[in-house]
Specification:
It is a single chain. The chain is globular, with a radius of gyration of 16 Å. The longest helix is centred in the middle third of the chain and has 10 residues. It is mainly beta and 114 residues long. The strands form 3 sheets. A 3-stranded antiparallel beta sheet has the order 2-1-4, with no helix packed on it. Strands 3-5-6 form a 3-stranded antiparallel beta sheet, with no helix packed on it. Strands 7-8 form a two-stranded antiparallel ribbon. The model has no long low-confidence stretch (mean pLDDT 86).
Length: 114
């Protein structure tokens, strides 16, 4: 597959359009054929520039808030293969006090997809 890759922090000249390995989803995961992603000031431009205090590990593939078509989903009932989807950009931990109380927006340890 092709992706925009950052191998070093800095200006837009550091962005590279490269072939990267296609991820292999686990049995309870899906693989999305991405058609579009957002361009976000803090989660794309700032991370590209200096990491944005998010602690990204290089090499990094850009892309946040993806939408596209489900390509593979082995043991997953929903969403189905070929279904069009948009992905919520973060995953809540599910175990902190806020998550246990159902207040997912206040999760103390969210992870960002992309």
């Amino acid at each position: 597959m092709k992706a925009i890759v950052i191998r070093e922090f800095g200006g837009p000249e550091g962005l590279r359009w490269e072939a990267v390995p296609t991820p292999t989803p686990g049995p309870d995961e899906v693989l999305l054929r991405v058609h579009a992603v957002s361009v976000n000031r803090t989660l794309d431009l700032q991370v590209r520039q200096d990491g944005g205090n998010y602690g990204p590990v290089l090499t990094l593939v850009l892309g946040n808030d993806p939408s596209g078509v489900v390509a593979v989903g082995q043991a997953v009932e929903q969403p189905q293969v070929n279904q069009r989807v948009a992905v919520f950009g973060s995953i809540r931990c599910g175990v902190c006090t806020s998550c246990v109380q159902g207040q997912y927006a206040q999760c103390s340890r969210p992870r960002i997809l992309g």
